[in-house]
Write a structure and sequence with these properties.
globular, mainly alpha
């Protein structure tokens, strides 16, 4: 599996690691709203820290790999695009939030940000 990932272009390696990282991040930041709403906040904080460990175990290598060919600004914008791409399905399907047209407008703004960060 590791050699399969390493055979991919570096931006793709970074993106895949960031997608996995963002899944953990989204659960760490928002999952407790559904699962631990009746618990004291500090229980949710400790659970979120435990989940966030896995986020960082993926996010740090993603940025190190990506920094080989991308700037820090490009990495950040790519992470934000991925973050919204992970968050919207999570909010709609896991938390039961309604889909809003504002998600599309936000995504279009991120497309613009990506354009300016990645243009030659």
């Amino acid at each position: 599996m590791n050699s399969l990932i390493q055979s991919l272009p570096i931006p793709m390696q970074s993106a895949l690691l960031l997608v996995a990282s963002n899944v953990f991040m989204t659960f760490a930041w928002y999952g407790h709203l559904k699962n631990m709403a009746s618990k004291p906040w500090f229980f949710a904080a400790f659970a979120s820290w435990g989940i966030a460990l896995f986020e960082y175990l993926l996010q740090v290598p993603a940025n190190r790999v990506g920094a080989q060919t991308m700037t820090v600004g490009q990495l950040k914008v790519m992470q934000e695009v991925i973050s919204l791409s992970v968050f919207v399905p999570f909010a709609v399907f896991y938390l039961g939030q309604p889909f809003k047209l504002d998600y599309i407008w936000a995504a279009l703004c991120l497309v613009g940000a990506a354009y300016f960060m990645f243009r030659a």
